[in-house]
Specification:
Layout: E1 3-7, H1 19-22, H2 27-38, E2 43-47, H3 51-64, E3 67-71, H4 80-87, E4 93-97, E5 119-122, H5 127-141
Parallel strand pairs: 1-2, 1-3, 3-4, 4-5
Bound molecules: ligand CA2.
């Protein structure tokens, strides 16, 4: 019943710049919020700046996870390889963004991930992770 929460490039630097777009919450604080919201549900909360590492973790999640939440960060707009890996994930999958990518410049509007995700959450700030966790638990239980 493990839920994976994967985070892409630069998100380890959250809380250090552009607070008007991304807020002031650090990724460590987001992880703590998620662990509090998860209760007894096991969580794998990870971040990598490497596309290959994220793909390996998606494969691992495909073999073991009940659900997957991913903030692919800039890979959202570039990575067919991550999209291909996500396409193979057979259970609930949420694409998550802290900011509302559709409210931003044109280059942030086309996600490779959205067509293969069960659901997309964007623009709820750091709390989006907690909402995503509640939503994916409901989807798993349904
Ligand atoms: O809003 C999101 O969660 C994003 O996935 C974050 C990505 C951006 O490329 C997407 O358009 C939307 C960028 C993450 C950059 O990480 C930061 C690190 C430090 C301070 C601010 C952002």
């Amino acid at each position: 019943m493990t839920i994976y929460i994967l985070n892409g490039p630069n998100l380890n630097r959250l809380g250090t710049r552009e607070p008007e777009v991304y807020g002031r919450t650090t990724l460590a604080e987001i992880e703590a919020m998620c662990r509090a919201a998860a209760g007894d549900t096991p969580l794998e909360f990870r971040q990598s700046n490497s596309e290959a590492q994220l793909i390996d973790w998606i494969h691992e999640a495909t073999d073991t996870a009940a659900g997957l939440i991913i903030n692919p960060a800039a890979f959202t707009f570039t990575s067919m390889a991550i999209m291909d890996a996500l396409k193979m994930f057979p259970r609930p999958l949420i694409e998550l963004h802290i900011s509302n990518i559709h409210r931003r410049e044109q280059m942030y509007h086309h996600s490779y991930m959205s067509p293969v995700a069960t659901a997309v959450i964007a623009g709820l700030g750091a709390r989006g992770y907690v909402h995503a966790l509640h939503a994916i638990k409901e989807m798993i239980d349904a």
